[in-house]
Amino acid sequence: MNTEKSMIDAAYEALEKHGGALTFTDLVNEVAAILEMSEEEKLARLGSLYTDLTLDGRFVALTDNFWDLRKNHTYDKVHIDYNEVYSEDVEEEGEEKDKEEEEGEEGEGEEDDGNVEEEGEEKTVALDEDVASFVGQNQ
Q1: Do residues 60 and 69 lie in contact, with contact meaning Cβ atoms separated by under 8 Å?
Q2: Above 70 in pLDDT, residue 116?
């Protein structure tokens, strides 16, 4: 293995030479070729290259596991506004809770809540179908 360059520098060189995005697999193969790595060395250092790529600000992860140099992309194209992502999740959770509350209100006012049935002196506990199937009991 050629130890004059680090794997991350070899990745930068490979992407610059290619002139565009590469899949992670192709990038790893290019890095291995530049550094003259054996197949065993390549596989052993695969994870550290991926970690280095994610931490190094010179690189950007694109869709479908493609990687490219950040300088080749505008900020708007590669920036993810996490506030929007999290606010969408919160809105979806809020909508789900609203639906659950509405369904709960519809069931109010009924005498039997479905949990306990009385039959003479005996009381039997009615199990939810999901719970019954989980524990192997059928109603």
Answers
A1: yes
A2: no
Residue extents of the structural domains in the chain: 7-78, 82-135
What confidence tier does 97 reach under pLDDT thresholds 50, 70, 90?
low
Q: Which residue has the higher pLDDT, 45 or 83?
A: 45
How far apart CA 83 and CA 127 sit, in angstroms, is 42
DSSP string, 22-51: EEHHHHHHHHHHHTT--HHHHHHTHHHHHH
Task: Output the DSSP codes for 116-135.
Answer: EEEETTEEEEPPPHHHHHHH
Q: Which CATH number is associated with domain 7-78? A: 1.10.10.1250
